[in-house]
Amino acid sequence: MRRAISITVLSALAGLAQAQNANHFDCSNFLQFGADINKTRTAFAQSPETMAWNWFACLNQPSTAQSSNLVWETMKPSDQVYLPNGAPPGTYDSSAPLPAAVVTQAKAQGMNLSRAFHNLNATQQVDGLILQMGGAVPDAQQGNPVRFQLLMGKDTFDYIVKNQVYNMNGQAALANDLHFPPTAWELKAAWLWIGTDTTYQQTLVNDGYYIAQAYYQQDGKYQVGYAALSGLHVVNKLDSSWVWTTFENINNSKYTVTNAAPATPMTNTTGPTPAAKPVNASFQASNPTLSKYELIGVEFQPITQVLANSQLESAFQNTSSCLACHSTAAYSNDDGYFNFALNKGGGIVYPTAPLPASDFDGYKKLDFVWSLKRAQWQR
Amino acid sequence: MSVLNFPRIYLNGHMFWNPPTANNNDVFPLYDAVNADINWPFMSHFDINATNAPTQLMPWAIKPLAMSDLPTYVLQVPTNANPKTYPYMPAEWDLFGDNACGTVSYKGTRSTIIGGELQANTYITEDALVGRDYQLLGNPFGSNAPTAARFVDVSPWQNTFTALYFDKLMLGDATCGLTLNRQYRMMDRFLNFNWGALGGLVYVTTTWQSCFPQENLEWVIGDSALLSNLQQQMKLQGAKGLMFRFSTYLTCYDRNGVFNDFPYVNTRSNAPTDTARLQAMYQKGLDNVSGIFFNPAYSRTAATLGLWFADEYPTAPAGLRLVPVAAVPIIQTSPPRDVAPTKLGVVSAQVTGNTLSLDLTNTFPFYPVDATAPILTAEKFQAGDYQLGVREGDQFTSVVDFGYEQYRQCAFDKRSGLLDFALNDDNVKALQSGTLELQRKSPAPAKPVTAAAQQTWTAEVIESGSFIDVGDHKTLNIMVQKNGVPAANTTLWVAEYGNPYMVTSSDYYLAFSNAANFTLFYDDPTDRNFNQANLPQFNDAPPVSNYLATGSGRRLTALQNVHRPTSTPVGYLDFLNGPGKPIAVNLQPCLAFDAGVYVTGTLNDNQATQVDYSYVTTTTDANGIAQVSFRAVTPGFPTLRFFVKDGDSDPAIPFSFPLPQAYIDFLTPLRVLPLDMQLQQDFINYWNTVYKNKDAATELWEGFLYPRILQTFYYLYPIMNKYMPLNSQARVEGAIDQLIVLISKPYQEESTLSMPITRDMSQSRRAVLELWAKKLVKRNYPPQQLKMSDYDNL
């Protein structure tokens, strides 16, 4: 106990010290960890939370001086990687054209077609449940799900293409485990759907939410409108077990609710961690556009730990570990993808520490990249 | 022994019950539970079929139906034609129920540990454990936080039908408490519908019990002398573990806003404004999960935690048991009301050293003091003064006396219905000299009334409430006691009974295999509210009075014996194969006994109807445990009844017996789930015709999985919309990891998470879902054929 407390305190102090230098971080080439990855590793080791915030700040800068898109919004969405019928994806920089119906609606609503439109094509978290919007959301959105999207960096994409694991045929043919490069990045974003309600949109702006243009398909029809970023996982492979960071808006409990009956406000029960708190205060003060976002914590060591984003691991926060859960990413030709819903005591729990290697006999490990589950077979 | 032993810990509070009521309708046969399917023949009366169900079924389910809307056969079922019932909503009172149950701790209403006794009459209220909450909890679902315990009607049409599934019982908290991990789930016991005649289901009481081996206990004694003493005594006295026994009573409905934060609804009212409001609220919940609300029932509860010894039934009170004999006059004083004499309930008794302990948990009837109060409180009827003693032949010897002050509600609440008497040595000797009898004192010259007398034999099945698949072989263990002690080398006869209607709670008829067309009920077309069940018997068997019931289930208000009616007799086969087919249940055997004896009996009706039936005999071992084995042959809800062979003469197996008698019989309900190998083959065939198609996954979902397997459950368990909408391919596939775990066979047996759909799911449906989930969804639908042998490798 004494040792754990010391580490926590030291970590918090280190984070505070690093946070004072927050604004001096060089965002150029940060997705490649600058010119010397080892320097990044050293800085990360001094304060993982500070480095997480630096990445978050860099990701949220405009992608170019003239662009209205943020850096992370230019990353490759998974729906443009894992294509129907297992088709090979285009190049990393080529964006799939928006569906015509989306363009039509967007024009009608006066939206900016030169700006990114996020395809928010997922609603389920890894426990199979949705996160309901509720509380202060308008009646039209009560009970509707928070929506999600997956994005990946260029080196992640290139590795998937190079190894032809963008479809199931490629994954089934794997002879060995996958090993992504250290500069592999993935993001998972959670969004409150706004639609076209300008009053609600302004409320969310006032609460510090980043607003983006978005669409999704439901019952064969496209919904087009605005969405507010409520949570963001940012992960990369700086460490062999990857580095797992997660951010969310501090006002999420106003707009999302639990599955309790009656529903109660959704809160984060895992953080911000003590080490993240001073770093949050520092970066929030120096980044006005991100001042309502907070880092919940960072995982990078293969130990028993719990970390969750209230928007992305809502109902299973106390058995949620990004690293442990993603360490089960594996495929078997006989049994398919590894089932991380663990049978325990007549219930279901999720791994909070990496499982023993013997659990993966007969599987090919996918190097923590669960987005590969979205691959399709060629037919 | 048992909780009648010392030490004891007493608990008191409220329980909630949150069943999904559309699939458990007392009046309408919406759900064909035998085949686990929507009752489409019934639905056809309303022009609803599988094709138009997506738009028609749920709107129909939440709309009140007038009596005139119903097919005749629905009203013909005895108890189903009470005009006061209608208009009646198929969804009933808790459409979105999730099968949860547990104790209530809400605002000022708490369910807590209230005291204890280390030995007789040493009541302790000053203890670190006292005042802390207790709760029944379910298995964890993706979180360290436990979920709710669950209950399910294993056999919905009979008496002992409700099973309570739980993972643990938790007393206190992490600083002072006790966690008892489940070994045995519970079944309701002594559910006495006779007391419904006092004014409805609110008067009906039931008893529950579960036992926990020592190794299943997690102690955090803290500063609690009660816990410390209980732990010490468990070891010192050589107990097997702990026993938790509780009663539930004073069940009330529509208490939203009192025990919870849900909006109030009045589901008992037939007023158009109330039904319209309920309908609108149900529709809102169906339209959007944020509109889902519960409307649980609530009961009072009183419980005792004590010692569990070897040879004691784990899920029912063992030891000496007294059952009612004659009705006794009872008086309601506050407010005054004339009440007809009634029979008491069951009494358990035990002599430990020089202490006589009685379990009066379910013995004396009670009434709500103010039936309009938000939270009902009970008072016992003044049922007179009593003497308990022994009978030897014609001689009754009184040993102890007690009066109203000792069984009235405040005394009941204090000790959870237990009552102790100090005995001298002569008393002890006297009590061992004959059989126990409870007499109500009467002022001279009237003679005392024998209110209850010792039941010589008791028998309980450890695996009561089991689920079995057609084709499966099963062995049940039956613990038999004679005068409260294990009965070695005792022969039992075992016969199977069924209930004839898929609505209401109905009488029991022997399962038979021939085309016996006895009179099932008497139909009065001029007023079917007077329709009555017929209970024929075999020749030479004592006659059984027919009775007229008013209402059933939640609507139960009265039971009274009536004379044989003059209305039209309706034959069982005529009803089963004729117009009554959508509501009748085949009384064919669901089970084939190992070494069964096949016989033919003749009914004492005008046609001398021949009945082919079977029974099996079994004998207890040195520990008083017998076994009965059988193979499940037909889906349904068989109830096994046990008859002890006492002496040289064979026991009589009655052809029928009435529902109100069942609470003191030795019954075990079972559920036999259908097996449909053709379904499994059809699934393989379907996939093998579409597997190469670009949209193979969607074709399989729309063409097979949803319509053939999940559609029924989608309609009947709308609470699933909140967690896994069963009509959504994306949502079900997106939760495939969880589905694989939750539909597994072991989870069906015990997990509270198996609720609500999979406990109703046949083995074939489960096999198809497992094959689909593991070999197709988890592999992203490989364009490869499946074969029947793939079912063997799941």
UniProtKB/TrEMBL annotation, chain A:
Keywords noted in UniProt: Signal
Leader sequence segment: 1-19
The protein's name in its UniProt record: Cytochrome c family protein
